[in-house]
Amino acid sequence: MEDLKDRLEQALPVIRDGADAADSDAKFPTASVQALADSGLLGLTLPTEFGGLGGGPVDLVEAVSAVAAACGSTSMIYLMHLSAAMVTAAAPPPDGGEELLAGMAEGAKLGTLAFSEKGSRSHFWAPVSKAEVAGSGVKIAADKSWVTSAASADVYIVSSLGPNATGPMEPNLYAVPRVAEGVKIAGRFDGLGLRGNDSAPVRLDVEVADGARLGDDGGGFALMMQVVLPWFSLGNSAVSLGLAEAALDGAIAHASGSRFEHLDSSLSDLPTIRAYLAKSWTDLAAHTALLRETAAKVAAPDDSTMLAVLGTKAGCNEATLRITETAMRVAGGAGFSKQVGIDRPYRDARAGFVMAPTSDALFDFTGRALCGMDLF
Ligand SMILES: Cc1cc2nc3c(=O)[nH]c(=O)nc-3n(C[C@H](O)[C@H](O)[C@H](O)COP(=O)(O)OP(=O)(O)OC[C@H]3O[C@@H](n4cnc5c(N)ncnc54)[C@H](O)[C@@H]3O)c2cc1C
After folding, report:
1. Which of ligand 1's atoms lies nearest the C-alpha of 199?
2. DSSP letters spanning 215-270
3. Which residue's CA is minimally distant from atom 39 of ligand 1?
């Protein structure tokens, strides 16, 4: 997208300014999300027919990683919004779907995903909650274990088995306004990282019209696999690599600027330190290239796209664990004591690999795909 850099340049200073407070005070970065809205970036990947910018997977990766390098919490809020928007665009609910999409594109309606459940943990594709028929719609009773932007989003895309489901892999997806009666934030989030993203468990006891359903009855699994999985996995990989870049840049700056006065040398004069930086740079460059290639595959899918999507999230998440760990090692006690600001991306980076599908599940899925086995 031609003007993506300009839009990012407009939003990033605000996002950078809010990053420390989002982390230290666990404060939802309202100004940063507004900056994304003001620059049009909340509609980045939504089709132009819905008021979006019509960007593709490569644009998503560029934008999300740039936001992550500035503020991890904002980048996850952003990614959850885009994931919710893309699945809504793929199957707009008959009741107010177009209006909702226009709001999501212009930033008037912040979206998120409410998939993970207490009963099926990270296996988000298999909700244990089962909606019951209620009037002309359904009643959903579900314990959602984590919802990003829980108290700040305008709309949740909620998974639940429908009344007609015959097995755990036949969920429905519904667009549920956060202010609907029966939506209750059921706990406080006090995370290791991404502390500003307002993730929280949510208890749902809501009545939803059939017209709020995305797609066909029982069609939620296909939407999860065909839409949410590729967009979320690319974006989650981009969050990881943006955080890795921030940590590596911080480590390089620290190594170059920190002196051993008694030796008249700097940390970067130590070959061990330089080798750590070089290995991290190579790791980051390789995974950045992999992510771009996978984004291009999602834009023009072929038989190898699913394998690439699965393996790329796991690979980027794990590379980021290594890179941020190495950055902390390079920065020594200064890193540990927060002087160089590497601790924030280090802590933020520990969310990506436990976000579903988790790295470990993905390595298994990728192995299955490689061996020609069914994923489920
Ligand atoms: C910051 C943050 C924000 C989040 N935001 C959202 C959100 O907005 N919406 C939402 O729906 N969810 C969200 N989640 C939830 C997330 O997607 C996961 O569901 C959650 O992190 C899983 O945690 P758990 O303790 O239930 O994991 P568990 O399922 O208990 O996993 C524990 C361990 O077992 C491993 N494991 C599990 N299954 C397998 C398998 N099949 N093969 C190999 N290993 C396996 C995992 O890799 C992990 O290491 C968020 C999570 C975090 C941390």
Report:
1. 3
2. SSTT-HHHHIIIIIHHHHHHHHHHHHHHHHHHHHHHHHHHHHH-EEGGGTEEGGGS
3. 361
- H/E stretch holding 110 reads none
Residues in the chain: 376
Tell me the CA distances in angstroms from 284 to 59, 68, 272, 278, 291, one per residue in order.
19, 14, 18, 10, 10
Question: Best mutation site among 78, 79, 83, 116 for ligand 1, i.e. most ligand atoms within 8 A of its Cβ?
Answer: 116
- Per the listing, tokens 């072929």 go with 302
Compute the C-alpha angle 223/229/235, nearest 5°.
Answer: 130
Tokens encoding 342? 């590497």
Could you count the other beta carbons within 10 Å of the beta carbon of residue 261?
6
| Residue nearest (by alpha carbon) to ligand 1 atom 45 | 361
Mean pLDDT per segment of 10 residues, for the chain of length 376 residues?
96 98 96 98 98 98 98 98 98 97 98 97 96 96 98 98 94 98 93 96 97 97 97 98 98 98 98 98 98 98 94 98 98 92 97 96 94 90
Ligand 1 centroid to residue 355 C-alpha, Å: 5
- Residues in contact with ligand 1 by the CB-under-6-Å rule are 80, 112-116, 121-122, 124, 146-148, 191, 194, 199, 351, 354-356, 358, 360-361, 364
Take residue 263 and report the two structure tokens written for it.
């030796």
Q: What is the pTM of this model?
A: 0.98
Integer Cα distance of 363 and 329 in angstroms: 27
Instruction: Check if the beta carbon of residue 40 is closer than 8 Å to that of residue 315.
Output: no
Please tell me the number of Cα atoms within 13 Å of 74 on its side-chain side: 33
Contact criterion met (CB below 8 Å) for 149 and 198:
yes
Kind plus residue range of the DSSP H or E element containing 372: none
Q: Tell me the two tokens of residue 105.
A: 């594109």
